[in-house]
Design a protein that fits this description.
With 287 residues, this protein is of the alpha/beta class. The chain has twelve helices and twelve strands. The chain has a seven-stranded parallel β-sheet, sandwiched between helices. It has a three-stranded mixed β-sheet with strand order 7-9-11. The chain is globular and about 55 Å long. The termini are far apart.
């Protein structure tokens, strides 16, 4: 039995179809099963509720062999550690109670960097929580998602993208479908043991200027990069309901990015994933 958290999210929604092509039974934890495609609801067992809830986890992890754990950020939390670590304690407890053998966790690059990075640092602490259970663990250490650019479709239509990193600062970007492919591979493999970090760097390092240039070529219309202001971004987040601490955590993550927290891992054939940003843009972005 494979249990998937956040099955309607960017990554989980891409893992589930891969798993359902196999013979392993799949159980999903979903607050709103109506967001799942009808064929998924027909083929997978669904436990309704939040994976922050002990009772929900007890139902979901009963008889489970493997768990995919993704803790979405909570914008109103009192700190990133509350959002990721405190919220994950019921999950770690349930792994112990139900003897779940293997846990695949969504985390971030930069473990051991000694750079405070807001959400990223809290993700590393969440990893440690699950490592403490004694389960076999693979923590997928990830850079920025290419899919996040989709949040800027409206401004892309106006001819620009924005960000608060320097225009020519190159860093790794990854497509969530590549993350899902790796996660599914680990979830279906019964042979791996131990606890380890799996660094994934996407296909290439890109700056915002590079991304604007690729979008220009793919969309056939000029797209430029406009530098944003971190203080203004923080105030925007607060105005949208973020707590002060979580808004600052987003900024701290961005500052750590500029300090190179995502660039410290050497690129190899093993940690380079296949989808280029150009391929992503060609398939996912239309005007």
């Amino acid at each position: 039995m494979i249990v998937i958290t956040a099955p309607t999210g960017q990554i989980g929604s891409k893992i589930v179809p891969v798993l359902l092509q196999q013979t392993e039974p799949v159980r999903l934890i979903a607050r709103d099963p109506g967001k799942l495609p009808a064929e998924v609801r027909q083929r997978a067992e669904v436990v309704v509720g939040s994976h922050r809830d002990r009772d929900v986890l007890d139902r979901a992890l009963d008889g489970a062999d493997a768990l995919f754990w993704l803790m979405p950020s909570s914008p109103t939390a009192s700190s990133p550690y509350e959002a990721y670590v405190t919220a994950s304690i019921p999950g770690a407890d349930a792994v112990v109670r139900h003897g779940v053998s293997r846990v695949v966790i969504v985390s971030a690059l930069g473990r051991g960097s000694q750079i405070y990075a807001g959400h990223i640092s809290a993700s590393h602490a969440m990893e440690d929580l699950f490592r403490s259970t004694g389960a076999h663990v693979r923590a997928l250490a990830l850079p920025t998602f290419m899919d996040n650019i989709l949040r800027q479709v409206a401004t892309i239509r106006d001819g620009f993208i924005s960000g608060t990193l320097p225009a020519d600062f190159a860093m790794p970007w990854i497509a969530t479908k590549d993350i899902a492919a790796v996660a599914a591979e680990y979830l279906l493999d019964h042979m791996w043991t131990g606890q380890d970090t799996v660094d994934l760097l996407g296909a290439e390092d890109l700056s915002y200027n590079d991304i604007a240039d690729i979008l220009t070529k793919v969309l056939g219309t000029p797209i430029r990069f406009e530098a944003g202001d971190r203080a203004a971004v923080k105030q925007l987040l607060v105005s949208r309901g973020y707590s002060e601490a979580m808004a600052q955590s987003v900024i701290d993550m961005d500052l750590a990015g500029e300090r190179g927290i995502n660039n410290a891992t050497p690129r190899t054939d093993g940690n380079t994933t296949p989808t280029s940003f150009r391929e992503f843009a060609e398939t996912a972005i239309t005007l």
